[in-house]
Amino acid sequence: MFARLLILLYAIVSYAVFLVSFLYAVCFVGNYSVPKSIDVGGRTNSSEAIVVNLLLLGMFAIQHSIMARPAFKQWWARIFPVACQRSTYVLLSSLILLLLFWQWRPIPIPVWQIDGIAAWLLIGVYWLGWVIVLASTFMIDHFDLSGLRQGFFALRGVEMPAQSFKTPLLYKIVRHPLMLGFLLAFWATPAMTAGHLLFAIMTTAYILVALQFEERDLIAEFGTTYQQYRQRVPMLLPRPPAPRPTGASR
Predict the structure, then answer these.
(1) Residues 6+ positions from 144 with CB-CB distance below 8 Å
(2) What is the Cβ-side half-sphere exposure of residue 217, based on CA atoms within 13 angstroms?
(3) Region 142-148: what's the mean pLDDT?
(4) Roughly what angle, to the nearest 10 degrees, separates helices 194-222 and 224-232?
(5) Which of helix, strand or coil describes residue 183?
(6) CA–CA separation, 210 and 205 (whole Å)
(7) Residue 76: phi, psi to the nearest 5?
(8) Is 48 exposed, middle or buried (0-12, 13-18, 19+ CB in 10 A)?
(9) Is the pTM of this model over 0.85?
(10) 106: confidence class by pLDDT, cuts 50, 70, 90
C-alpha cells in the first residue's frame, strides 16, 4: 500500500510540474508577464543564440520522441513500474521545457509587425490555439495523458483498462487537433522576431516529423480502424465540407 501511495504522489507531483510548465509556456510564447520569454531576457550575439536555442529544442525533441515509442516503453517496463511511466514522461518533458524557458536566448530582430484589427485577430488566434490544445486533451483523456489516471489505478491495485479508439468532437475534423492548436499558438503573433520565427519553424518541423512516427504507432495498435480514419479525416488542416450532390434531399 505504501508503494502504491508513492506512485500516486509521484503522479501528482509530475502533474503539478506539468501545469507550471504549461502555464509558463502560454506566457513565454506570447510574451506575457514573465521575467523570461521568447523575446525578453538576456541578450547574446545571434550566432550563440541560434546554437543554444537549437540545442534546447533538440533536447526536448529527442526526449519527447524516444520515450513515446512502444519499443522504449517495453524496455522500460522491465526496470520501472508501468504505472509511473506516463508520469515520468510528463515530468521529464516538463522539466526540459522549464530548462528551455530559462536558458532561451532571444533574437529580437523584427521579422514582421502588424497593428490594428489584424493584430487583435492574431492575438485571438493565439489564444484559440491554446484553448484547442487544452480542450483536445480533455476530449480524449486529460488525466490519462498526464499520468494521473495511472496513479489512481495503481492506488486501487488494479490494472489499467485497454484504451479504445475514439474520435470525439475535434477529432472528427482533424486527426491531431492538439498539434494544430500548438501550431496556431506558435505562429499567430502580431510581432514576429527572428527568435520567435526560429522557435516556430523548428517546432513545426518537429511536429510534422513526430506525427509520422505517431501515426505508424497508431496503425500498429489499431490496424484497419485507424487506416480508415486516416482516409476520412485530414491530419492537421480541416477539409471544406463536400458539396451536396445536385438534387439530394435535405
Answers:
(1) 86, 150, 163
(2) 14
(3) 81
(4) 140
(5) helix
(6) 9
(7) -65, -30
(8) exposed
(9) yes
(10) very high
